[in-house]
């Protein structure tokens, strides 16, 4: 099964998922000076006030908070998007002790971690799975995490990580609004890309915020106590460095909001 190790990591994913060598793979290295300012790009709008978080789970690749996406109660719209896209889940990618773990990089610089808020086009597609395989099916909002002081709200997540230490564990996680994880500015870069994990479907309109949020080393360290492996497995693999490195741009244009 795919993972982030030597034998099953990003460098061999193409064997089972040939699209890994496709023309719109993610993540990428974003070079700000080469991004084109597009005045037709409006602001992104996040309507999360009626969002309904359900649970938090360890899926063996990351820690994921799932939302009720049975209606349009929490959506992202505007910016490069032609429709509202429904919030389905968010999850993180991070590094090991002291080394960085973001997926997108900015002029070659990686951040400590990256948060992905995953949305799907329920106007055009009936299910997430169907949308995840369509070229305009998903919109993922990427937010960089940099280290510094404690993030005043991230503790709501890091305080429960011990309950989902092992792959396959899940616990209730109600009443969490991810709006508290946004930076002050919603200025962004946007480009057409893919899922950054298998099946690597080329179905994502990426919206990457320019401003990182600040979290503490201590808070990040709690992500690293998670395990890739299940409780019953005798191998204990610490969940860290669960990021795919930047992929070839293949002539794609990165646009910048103002
Ligand atoms: N890292 S990412 O690009 O934001 C991202 C977003 C949503 C996702 O579903 C995934 N990948 C993921 O969940 N892969 C395993 C399950 C899956 C997802 C989609 C279609 C079929 N199977 C990655
Ligand atoms: Zn992700």
N-to-C series of helices and strands: HEEEEEEEEEHEHEEEEHE
Structural class: mainly beta
The percent range for strand residues is 25-35%
Which ligands are bound? Answer: ligand N8A, zinc ion
The whole-number mean of residue pLDDT values reads 97
Rg (CA only): 17 Å
Total strands: 15
Task: List strands and helices in order, with pairings.
Blueprint: H1 13-16, E1 29-30, E2 36-37, E3 44-47, E4 53-58, E5 63-67, E6 75-78, E7 85-94, E8 105-106, E9 113-120, H2 128-132, E10 138-147, H3 155-158, E11 170-172, E12 188-193, E13 204-209, E14 213-215, H4 217-223, E15 255-256
Parallel strand pairs: 1-8, 2-15, 10-13, 10-14
Antiparallel strand pairs: 3-6, 4-5, 4-11, 5-7, 6-7, 7-9, 9-10, 12-13, 12-15
Bound molecules: the ligand NS(=O)(=O)c1ccc(O)c(NC(=O)NCCc2ccccn2)c1 and zinc ion.
Notable traits:
single chain, 258 residues, mainly beta, 13-stranded mixed beta sheet, two-stranded parallel sheet, 4 helices, 8% helix, 28% strand, globular, binds the ligand NS(=O)(=O)c1ccc(O)c(NC(=O)NCCc2ccccn2)c1, binds zinc ion
